[in-house]
Protein 1
Amino acid sequence: MLPGLIDCHVHLAFDAGPDAIATVQAADEASLLLGMAGRARQLLDTGVTTVRDLGDRDGLAVRLRDAVADGLLHGPRILAANAPLTAPSGHCWFLGGEVEGEEAIRDMVRNNARGGADVIKVMATGGGITPGGPAIWESQFSLQNLRTAVEEARRYGLPVAAHAHGTAGIADAVTAGVDTIEHCTWMSDGGFDVREELIDEIVAKGIHVCPAASPDWQGFAKRFGQDRAKELFARVRWMDQRGVRLVAGTDAGVPRAVFDGFVASLEFFQHVGFPRDRIIEMATVDAARALGIADDTGRLARGYRADLIVVDGDPLNDLDALRNVHFVIADGRPSVPERAVVRAVGAKVTGV
Ligand SMILES: [Zn+2]
């Protein structure tokens, strides 16, 4: 038995298929919301009892969050960002968060906050999934822009998560005082640009980094080449050795990042040399700290939320044990994953 798992980076609005972007753009609100409910349930069935949704459309993740909290649906607790702030035609512009200039930035943060957001997401650099968007290492906002976003978020008591692949964008996000950095791949035009002093600042400021390791991390090497993959993977271990507080997340929803792949994502950290007890902390107690919910989530303790899972085996010996979730309690409400039911029924049938 262990605390419910926490995925610090998901997109319930995306379906993880090859056309995830086109699909979310074409979907009407009702069908999108239903799809999101199904995917939330899928996460719950894998033992994930808390997710941070870092970008959706039309405030749907907030509606789903409330439906789960009200007991209308089984699902993980959701912390929602609403539309991520991005540049005009920038990374994930189709989610509705395009802004240009200080006033528009303040307006969008305010809109998201009034729409019930738990966190503000800013796309500090380009990304890999937006056709025609800026390059992945390119900054989308100035330092002053990011400062404005953080300042406005603080007015509503909200933390800020910055998507940043490029080193320039990472540096500006750190200076602006964001709470978490997503991806943090240290990319520059065509290569990598790792800055030791910036790492020290991330550590000193207590900024958490979520590498958002896709469940399909092994496919990355196939698509982008062994050398690039090796370099990227080594950076994650290096950040850890330098004292950066890393947390688990999958980017579930983007192409190939499936909603039942949390354990595969955790195995990435094992592959690059993290001990298993540390990995489980990254998915529970450390993740709760990164999300600002550590006072009642991430541990099995008196006074904490009743978020816990029962698995077959000891994940400290083998992470694979986390694939056999027998039973989930989320916010005190029990549920049995579909796969566990199938296993149990199958065992009976064969036992007859
Ligand atoms: Zn993402």
Protein 2
Amino acid sequence: MSPVDINVPHPHLPPLTEVLPAEPLLLMGAGPVPVPAEVARAGGLVINHLGDSMNMVVRHIKALARYAFQTTDEHIIGVSGPASAAMEMAVGNLLWPGRRVLVLRNGWFSGRFAEMAEGVGAEVVVAQVPEGQPITAELAERELAQSSFDVVTVVQGETSCGVWTAELPEIVAQARAHGALSVVDTVCTLTTMPLKKDQWGIDVAFTGAQKGLSSLPGVSLIAFSDRAWEAVEKRPAPRPHWCLDALRAHNFWGHHHYHYTAPVSGLLALHEALRLICDEGLEHRFRRHLHSSLALQAGIEGLGLELATPLPWRLNSVVAIKVPEGVDDAQARRYMSNMFKVEIAGAFGLRIVRIGQMGEQARAPNLFRVLHALGVALAREGAKVDLSGGMAGLESHLAQHAEDVR
Ligand SMILES: Cc1ncc(COP(=O)(O)O)c(C=O)c1O
């Protein structure tokens, strides 16, 4: 056989330009979300992952991320990977055999911490409430009073069921009072609602790029307090990860030395996404997200549909809607995609559909498009829907908050 013989023939496949729609579907699900043009442009560039330009990008990202997290933390690290990779960096660097973690679980993502913590040999206690219910300070206090923990984990917004942890500041304060480090998942919430990492005393916070930040999937961010970093540095146990080893990653993020080839395009996109967030300002950004989500919620109720989460712990960044009796939501979502080119999310087992209000999703034209599509699609599946009532509910809230939802 000649050395250039090709044994596996090449497949004949069309270019993506022929198979993907010219205009992508409007992503109104639980993420990823649409990205601004500046972010898309930056994500199309490749630069060297080492050298002056990249060093500047890294410095800028850290400065911009400090604003987003509201922190002065020195140890900010960009992770090559999804938000789960940043979660894994937190878990894998702060936990090891002999360490104890309290996992506050009320859904899919808050429960993921427990899977990861078991994987690194930590002792895991899960305190849970049924999906759709909030994690409360009372629950945390009860567990913390019973035994001691090194780490407490909690999500600010449980995307899987649309629940907000309104008592997050209290929970974080309790963890600290009991001598535990707090690790907070801000994946769907960062820059969509207030998070004050330093003021609330959060030790570790992390997020993905593809949700509230409106950047490309595949890159995430994590910030360690000095207290948390001390635990990372003093770790007596072997370090199970190599890519996700925070000390090695800090070589790149703190000292501009090679760790692995950084995901330069994703980082350039993230730079632009964070810069746009700074340009907008968190104050306006929070108001935009709040009123965009409230307008959407008014529209959904105007349609005659029921929101799945009671107001006090309703997550504004991912709105969960009960699927009306007898309706096949998968069919309705398919119709929305095919007919109106709008995508929303189903759920992992619950009878809900979810509409995202993160980053570029929280814009008035997107609200009209998704609400109309949802109403028509559900009506087609047999739900009783008041389409004009829904659009009027949306319009009315937007009219009262025109300055906010710009
Ligand atoms: C609250 C929360 N945490 C973690 C994740 C995991 O993010 P990724 O899929 O980027 O790993 C998600 C994703 O939807 C999320 O919503």
